[in-house]
Amino acid sequence: MANITVVGSYVVDLMSRTPHIPSAGETVLGGPFRMGPGGKGGNQAVAAARLGSNVTMLTKVGKDIFGDEAIKNFENEGIETTHISRHPEEVTGTALIAVDDSSENMIVVAPGACGKITKSDVEKAKADFEKADVVLLQLETSMEAVEATVEQAQQLGKTIILNPAPYQEVTAELLSKVTYITPNETEATLLTGVEVNDEASAREAAAILQEKGVQTVIITLGKKGCFIHDGTDEGRFVQAFQVEAVDTTGAGDAFNGAFATFIADGFPLDEAVIRANAVGALSVTKIGTAPAMPYKEDLEQFLSAHK
Ligand code: RIB
Fold it and tell me: For a substitution probing ligand 1, which of 253, 255, 293 has the most ligand atoms within 8 Å of its CB?
């Protein structure tokens, strides 16, 4: 069984459906409302655990009821919680999410406690990093946590997957230590200055990221698919699975948690991406983020039906 250490955010998702995403100054009557576990780090940890990985989650929550619930939720998913610490003053983070009739979303994250993960929190988890086949992180925490994670994982010779979401500026030095980077179109655009919206622009952006020293670049383009560039050729496009989407929130997290699992399990790169695409597709057929992550059996059924 693969061991995956996830360093990232946990926040409570406060989600409302809305006929359309409100523009500045506009109030829209929406609903229904749902509250549940979220945060890119937490969602990715749940995705990996439901696919059978041994997952350790490193994050920070508040000493509040949301923090208690977070730990209970992770335990229910079979995720190791030793490195989930409680901040004495900060509250557990939240995300305000609006999902419109075309199932697109808009999110405002207030990271709260998980924005305060320190270098020392990361160093305390060194023994878990040692056991990990893959270290998976995002950019929804403090840059101190991101840098310490990449530093420690690299020193231990670990495979590092960086999902650069949400976009924050990262140094070229940090990028050069990453094994896989998985930006979506927006993040790839911000990281490279190339407007990414199709295969040709993804190829151009991927080449720039590779020149910066990332070993393998995977640009996710939503329902279109993914562009893979690992330096063996000019890169290649992998089509997404077409499904009826009800909520696309967390699809990137499903992809990343799954991709980490399949790479740790030893799948060849393209196959790991295809399987992760399938997990992303399954996740959009349900409402919510972490709760919408599919289980291993769901994936196997889906793959046999889509041969
Ligand atoms: O990627 C989706 C996630 O982004 C949501 O769960 C929300 O918490 C935000 O962090």
Answer: 253
